[in-house]
# Entry
Amino acid sequence: MKTCDLAIVGAGPAGLAAATEAAELGLDVVVVDENARPGGQYFRHPPAGFRPVGETPWEKDIRRGQSLFAVLGHPRVTYLPDAVVWDMPEPSVLAVAAGPRSGRVQARAVILAPGAQDRPVPFPGWTLPGVISAGGVQNLLKGQRIVPGTRAVVAGNGPLLLLVGANLVRAGVKVAAIIEAAPIWRRLPAELVRLVAAPPILAQALRYRAILAHAGVPILAGWTAVEASGSQAVDQAIIAPIDETGVVDRARRRRIDCDLLVTGFGISPAVELPRLLGARLRYDALRGGWTVERSADFETSVANLFVAGDGAAIGGVELALAEGHLAAQAVARRLGRLHAGEGSTWEARWTRLDRFRRGLESLYRPPRSYRALITPETIVCRCEDVTRAEIERRRGEGAASAVQLKAATRMTMGRCQGRNCLPTLATLLADWAGTEASAIAMPRPRPPIRPIPIGDLAVEDLPPPDLPADPHLPRGRR
Amino acid sequence: MTRRIDQGIDRGAAFRFDFDGQPVVAYPGETVAGALLAAGVARFRTTARSAMPRGLYCGMGMCWECLVVIDGRPSNRACMTEARPGMRVETQRGLGGPERS
# Structure
């Protein structure tokens, strides 16, 4: 078992910022990340073999990322790439699966910086090849310099759509339209007062808008994708207006030819580890659904367990960097390496960015529900091919709760472990019960929280388990 | 149009791997998913239960939709696997086990 002052889960913006701050303050740090290369999604960069030729729109972010990666070579920092945290048997212990490097890390404090994932919004045809999440398209562009189509429709909700659209235009793709569910043009005047709190981010958004305008890309606000059609891959996106209550006007639907439908309905914090440890969560529809409750120091309800960045509540890269620094300072204070009142330069920045975030959230406030998109034949659980009709049939047979529907349909039991269907199941259950998704009891996550090769477990050098002589007795009783 | 962005990047020396018997071009450091998409291949597998076509979806290792058979071993995430010269990649049918025809 490896021991350290601080273990950080995730080498994206928040994790790297936390590692930088902690190493500077003299802490011994272990950084565990499931990707082969650091940067998370935001600072995803091309492989070492790709050599830049001249200046492209991407280079500034790459250089910024690389200055953050420097901390991974710091003498007080141990970096474990290609390593999955599959369990935390205690709040201070990480179980790590990493082939022959598998094992456990014991830390005096832990900062979780697992980031976020695209929020799944099912509609007919969303499983067709060529329908790709906004995050996935960004990764292909940033990490591979590859575009997965020639004629694109970008549909969903949130500021990421402008960025993906502009990036596709710059990559030479014909972008037929941006389909934004929120009526942003109508709301914009009222939100400007908060949006000016972060002038560089606002300026960036205006640049993306200009790129799209110059390419003649229409932005339809108050519209949504309602279907992707095609047999072996997408060949058309079908769109229709949606109002703020979630009612879709299918009579006004339009078809747009495309071989790439990018869907981005916002992102959700990856809360599996906090949930596994029983940390208190809070439902916040504007910040991605289930978020982690934290103190002003970014500590969860579990002592010495901190969460920074989008993994706690969606806020974007600049907030994630600030939270990484602030959480590491809080850990250093806890461990007596920093005195109260010291190292607070990030606080004012966080407050300003948070004001901007609130403006942006209000501008992009999504329709109350997307359930009108989930027709009976729509696949809800992609891993196990479970449709809404099948869920309703099982419900008719008596499976009433999330746990019962899980057992009856196998939904949430596939390889993605519910990441792509649990939010939808919560929406449907809430709808049937006449309540909010926040009120729905979700199945308890269990380790391994991600699929791992069973051989990785055999590498661990653990004491033999205290098994009862009678296998029917609970563990630890004889 | 090419699906590789050539502006501002020198990819180094191309190599090939095999996809369902056809050669596919890749560059060092590219993922299997990247190279297949650059070659215009969108469908990576069919599902076990309904034989529905699937391809890359999340692009970050989370959804397990982009599974392919590599050198006879099923269920590799194409988005997380680096392409290597001479590797044999196949469309995964269902669970990709030896029962596939």
